[in-house]
């Protein structure tokens, strides 16, 4: 995380430097093209007014006069035809000036050194304290010809401004660097938190804490992350519960079988007891076999979504056959069954839907009372059918109703404890119906009976 922070700071400062350089180049171009000619013109005008004053007042001492003017903030260089030179005001850093320039001015022309000062030296061209960077003007005084070279004394005129700007620059750089360092820390903080949370999640700790309250993308990311962590935790819980359920459901019939085999090894038991033990062992084996079959079915339903082997078949025929098969079980409990079915064909997996009706009917029998009744009805709308299994059995309370489609869930009451089951039947029903894009619901009153309603699309 440190690297992201460092990167952020470095990149921002880099951007600041880069834009500084670009702005400098732009302002330099502006000086070279716009300000330099203006500056040249301004100083030329000023020099001309000095020249005309000197010409109009032949009685003044030229050198005194120039000395005076220079003290107002100008640097000057005067040369006459005999080559005699004098300087006024602050000294020039570089006193190089071509002889032709001097002769040219002495012969009456104006020298535009400021305008023609080389452009490559950035804005500093304005500050270059060189004799070449001046305006040269011819002066005639008392019949003598002079050449006067003049430029503003930048140091004198702009010294305070210089300092002001330098401090402004220094403060801007220092302050913005500090701000960048602090604000980056603030910006990167939620990311550090997220990284920490991800790490703890990858170590299997699901109860991550994230107090990112911001409304921006990072806040949204944190919220999604928390939702994901909760979902993962739920899935992990389901997985753990699933494994412990399976282990238990396999272990208990196995230990029962082992126990009864031990009893059978005792040769002195009566043949009646022996028959009973064998029957119990058989039941346990049947239970194990049902369990593994159901688990295998659930696993294959989970694994792929296009497991359905679809064909068009008649549902009422299928239901009638099922009812015939369970007639014996119902007569054992004296249960009355009635049905009103429609002659409808639907497109679906006949074998899996058979499992659905089988589970619902056996439940309606298993959880029914002696002398109870079962009613199977069917309704058809334009694009779907609704099959209802209503029984007059023990029913379900609200809490049980919410969970009966969960894997391994069995309503554990005194009434159901003696009834054989794995708790997988209804979750298989739910999965198969949803694979067909249908839906299954239950309404129930405790002690009165339950109704399971299956809705399936026809196509
Ligand atoms: P089981 O193998 O226990 O029957 P199911 O998944 O088919 O498993 O059913 C889950 C639980 O739902 C049952 O244990 C039972 O408590 C309850 N249940 C299912 N069908 C009915 C019904 N028709 N009437 C009352 N309770 C039912």
From TrEMBL:
<keyword id="KW-0547">Nucleotide-binding</keyword>
<dbReference type="InterPro" id="IPR004358">
    <property type="entry name" value="Sig_transdc_His_kin-like_C"/>
</dbReference>
<keyword id="KW-1003">Cell membrane</keyword>
<dbReference type="Pfam" id="PF00672">
    <property type="entry name" value="HAMP"/>
</dbReference>
<keyword id="KW-0812">Transmembrane</keyword>
<feature type="transmembrane region" description="Helical">
    <location>
        <begin position="164"/>
        <end position="188"/>
    </location>
</feature>
<dbReference type="InterPro" id="IPR005467">
    <property type="entry name" value="His_kinase_dom"/>
</dbReference>
<feature type="domain" description="HAMP">
    <location>
        <begin position="185"/>
        <end position="237"/>
    </location>
</feature>
<dbReference type="GO" id="GO:0000155">
    <property type="term" value="F:phosphorelay sensor kinase activity"/>
</dbReference>
<feature type="domain" description="Histidine kinase">
    <location>
        <begin position="245"/>
        <end position="459"/>
    </location>
</feature>
<dbReference type="GO" id="GO:0005886">
    <property type="term" value="C:plasma membrane"/>
</dbReference>
<dbReference type="InterPro" id="IPR003661">
    <property type="entry name" value="HisK_dim/P_dom"/>
</dbReference>
<dbReference type="InterPro" id="IPR036890">
    <property type="entry name" value="HATPase_C_sf"/>
</dbReference>
<keyword id="KW-0597">Phosphoprotein</keyword>
<dbReference type="InterPro" id="IPR036097">
    <property type="entry name" value="HisK_dim/P_sf"/>
</dbReference>
<keyword id="KW-1133">Transmembrane helix</keyword>
<dbReference type="GO" id="GO:0005524">
    <property type="term" value="F:ATP binding"/>
</dbReference>
<keyword id="KW-0902">Two-component regulatory system</keyword>
<keyword id="KW-0808">Transferase</keyword>
<dbReference type="InterPro" id="IPR050398">
    <property type="entry name" value="HssS/ArlS-like"/>
</dbReference>
<keyword id="KW-0843">Virulence</keyword>
<protein>
    <recommendedName>
        <fullName>Heme sensor protein HssS</fullName>
        <ecNumber>2.7.13.3</ecNumber>
    </recommendedName>
</protein>
<keyword id="KW-0418">Kinase</keyword>
<feature type="transmembrane region" description="Helical">
    <location>
        <begin position="6"/>
        <end position="26"/>
    </location>
</feature>
<comment type="function">
    <text>Member of the two-component regulatory system HssS/HssR involved in intracellular heme homeostasis and tempering of staphylococcal virulence. HssS functions as a heme sensor histidine kinase which is autophosphorylated at a histidine residue and transfers its phosphate group to an aspartate residue of HssR. HssR/HssS activates the expression of hrtAB, an efflux pump, in response to extracellular heme, hemin, hemoglobin or blood.</text>
</comment>
<keyword id="KW-0067">ATP-binding</keyword>
<dbReference type="Pfam" id="PF02518">
    <property type="entry name" value="HATPase_c"/>
</dbReference>
<dbReference type="InterPro" id="IPR003594">
    <property type="entry name" value="HATPase_dom"/>
</dbReference>
<dbReference type="Pfam" id="PF00512">
    <property type="entry name" value="HisKA"/>
</dbReference>
<keyword id="KW-0472">Membrane</keyword>
<dbReference type="InterPro" id="IPR003660">
    <property type="entry name" value="HAMP_dom"/>
</dbReference>
């Amino acid at each position: 995380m440190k690297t992201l922070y460092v990167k952020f700071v470095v990149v921002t400062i880099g951007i600041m430097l880069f834009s500084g350089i670009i702005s400098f180049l732009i302002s330099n171009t502006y000086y070279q093209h716009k300000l330099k000619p203006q500056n040249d013109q301004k100083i030329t005008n000023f020099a001309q007014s000095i020249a005309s004053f000197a010409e109009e007042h032949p009685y003044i001492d030229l050198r005194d006069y120039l000395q005076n003017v220079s003290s107002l903030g100008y640097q000057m260089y005067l040369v006459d035809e005999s080559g005699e030179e004098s300087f006024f005001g602050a000294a020039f850093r570089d006193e190089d000036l071509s002889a032709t320039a001097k002769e040219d001015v002495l012969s009456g022309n104006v020298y535009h050194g400021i305008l023609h000062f080389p452009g490559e030296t950035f804005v500093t061209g304005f500050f270059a304290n060189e004799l070449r960077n001046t305006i040269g003007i011819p002066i005639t005084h008392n019949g003598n010809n002079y050449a006067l070279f003049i430029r503003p004394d930048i140091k004198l005129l702009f010294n305070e401004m210089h300092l002001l700007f330098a401090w402004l620059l220094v403060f801007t750089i220092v302050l913005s660097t500090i701000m960048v360092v602090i604000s980056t820390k603030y910006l990167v903080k939620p990311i550090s938190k997220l990284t920490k949370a991800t790490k703890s999640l990858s170590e299997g700790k699901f109860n991550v804490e994230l107090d990112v309250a911001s409304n921006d993308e990072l806040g949204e990311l944190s919220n999604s992350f928390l939702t994901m962590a909760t979902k993962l935790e739920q899935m992990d819980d389901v997985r753990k519960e699933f494994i412990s359920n399976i282990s238990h459901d396999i272990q208990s019939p196995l230990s029962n079988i082992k126990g009864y085999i031990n009893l059978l090894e005792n040769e002195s038991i009566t043949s009646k007891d022996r028959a009973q033990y064998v029957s119990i062992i058989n039941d346990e084996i049947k239970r194990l076999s049902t369990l593994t079959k159901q688990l295998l079915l659930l696993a294959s339903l989970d694994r792929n979504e296009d497991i359905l082997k679809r064909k068009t078949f008649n549902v009422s025929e299928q239901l009638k056959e099922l009812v015939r098969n369970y007639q014996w079980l119902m007569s054992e409990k004296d249960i009355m069954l009635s049905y009103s079915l429609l002659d409808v064909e639907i497109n679906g997996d006949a074998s899996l839907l058979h499992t659905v009706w089988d589970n619902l009917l056996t439940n309606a029998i298993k959880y029914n009372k002696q002398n109870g009744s079962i009613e199977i009805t069917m309704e058809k709308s334009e694009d779907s059918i609704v099959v209802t299994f209503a029984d007059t059995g023990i029913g379900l309370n609200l809490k049980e109703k919410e969970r009966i489609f969960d894997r391994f869930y069995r309503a554990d009451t005194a009434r159901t404890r003696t009834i054989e089951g794995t708790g997988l039947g209804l979750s298989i029903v739910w999965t198969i119906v949803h694979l067909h894009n249908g839906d299954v619901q239950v309404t129930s009153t405790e002690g009165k009976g339950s109704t399971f309603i299956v809705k399936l699309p026809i196509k």
